[in-house]
Amino acid sequence: MLDKWAIEEKLTLMVDYLAELRQIGACSYPEFRGDFRIKRTTERLIQLVVECATDINGLLVTGLGHTPPPDYYSSFVELGRLGVLSPDFADELAPTTAIRNRLVHEYDTVDERLIYASVQPIIQEFSRYVQLINSYLQGRT
Q: Using an 8 Å Cβ cutoff, are 53 and 59 in contact?
């Protein structure tokens, strides 16, 4: 059984994070590069957006009676397999987990150009994700 309340709470958080990220998205690259507060805020917001999505993914997968996805990447792929998202869109979102992992675990030096370049695509892709998940939930009422 789907925990719609928990999913909707996560969606609300994600919408808030995306709104904050939009404000940062208005900064130029020199502004971004020159202000450590903007850089760190951007990194944290990207992390939070992706984590909200993977939490939602897990709630959806388990709520539909399946075993939890083994990792963040697979959580998107599984939503595509289950028809919650189109497989193509799920495959488009799945690689965002690599950025999240780099930020959280500091696997490599994080390329600030990559982070800056990721802002607009993340805003666009996850805004669409929110709409699709909301539509999916409405269709299940």
A: no
Domains of the chain: 4-139 (1.20.120.580)
* 66 included as an active-site residue: no
Q: Which residues contact 60 (CB under 8 A, 6 or more apart)?
A: 2, 7, 79, 82, 84, 133, 136
Give the predicted TM-score (pTM) of the model: 0.91
Nearest to 95 by CA among 81, 114, 113: 114
Distance (Å, rounded) from C-alpha 54 to C-alpha 87?
A: 16
Cα distance between residue 67 and residue 87, in whole Å:
19
Please say if 22 is a catalytic residue: no
Rounded to an integer, the average pLDDT of 116-140 is 95
Catalytic residue among 100, 113, 128, 140: 100
